[in-house]
Amino acid sequence: MSTSARKRLRVGIVGGGFMGRVHGRSALVAGAQVVGAVGSSPDRAAAAAEATGAEQGFDTLDDLLKADVDLIHVCTPNNTHLQVALQALDAGKHVICEKPLATSAKDATGLLAAAEEAGRVGTVPFVYRYHPMVRELRTRVAAGDAGQITSLHGSYLQDWLAEADDDNWRVDDQAGGPSRTFADIGSHWCDLTEFVTGDRIAAISAQTRTIRATRGGVAVRTEDLATAQFRTEAGVVGTVVVSQVAAGRKNRLYLEVSGTESSFGFDQEDPDRLWVGRRVASELLTRDPETLSPPAARVNRLPAGHAQGYQDAFDSFVADSYAAAADGDLPDGLPDFAAGARSAHLVDAVLRSAAADGAWTTVEH
């Protein structure tokens, strides 16, 4: 169905924080009618509506669901994702749910089953898939340009919790779940790696560490950083370091795919470029719609030389989610609830391995 012929979706947003604002902007860019946003009180409902660009605020999810909406954006703390998403699915709504899909692999798998049973679209914003140069990397790997992939390595480093007085609801394992750093950002790295290679992580040996024993006078039970070595189903070996206490690093996701013919490096803080390494004459590819492969060109939004970044990737993800809700077909590369459940099983394997002093642990799903 053409974009112009599609029904204009009516959507609601649950949560008015940073992610609620990001979702709201993407909803408006995609042409949806943002019917309302939910807050826990009249004042917070009004603030949520203002933050997300919604037409009005609602005190409860029940009230929003009665307002004739097609799709619900879930942008609440992690421990509420299961309840909110299930309630939306039970009401017959499509769902875009922030990651982690749930705070346990069992609950994430249950949400996937609930979406399938309801016949509704459920997606999770692993939006780094939507950088054109990521799609270019994926296309070139699939075409065999890397030769035999020999190793995968990289990191996802942030510093927003580096100082002793830094705090956030995500630190609390009751609100955020048993994993913080790996569930929050390691999940993105693993999803991106599996997406571009088409090869799944089969077993993990992980370590986690909590640098700040207390925050806000409360004991911290979630990890500040994690390291993992892994092997894939195809036998490729790899390593990853993730941290939220790496001073000077703001949001640096880096992935390198090493091969016998070519290697590729992608840095999401410099997303318009893709490094291609060869034994003779390496090169730096720049995003240019005139030279991109068709899969990369599909998610390109701006002319060459005009920086395209995180919000653009998010806009493309939301547009694809809406297309799936309207047409019933999943656009190529759309991260659905199966990707969210997969991520939850990877996080579970990391936690089980770390608890067993780094023992090799099979990813169960």
Characterization of the model:
- This protein has 365 residues and is α/β, with parallel strands linked by helices.
- It is built from 11 helices and 17 strands.
- Helix 4 (81-90) packs parallel to helix 5 and helix 6 packs across helix 8.
- The radius of gyration is 20 Å and the shape is globular.
- The two termini are 34 Å apart.
Major sheet description = 9 strands, mixed
- The span between the termini is 34 Å
What's the quaternary structure here?
A: single chain
> What Rg is obtained from the alpha carbons, in whole angstroms?
20 Å
The order of strands across the largest sheet is 16-15-14-13-7-12-11-8-17
Give the low-confidence spans: none
So how many helices?
A: 11
| H-E string | EHEHEHEHEHEHEHHEEEEEEEEEHHHE
Helix fraction by DSSP (H/I, runs of at least 4): 25-40%
How many beta strands in the DSSP annotation? 17
Average of the residue pLDDT scores: 96
Shape: globular
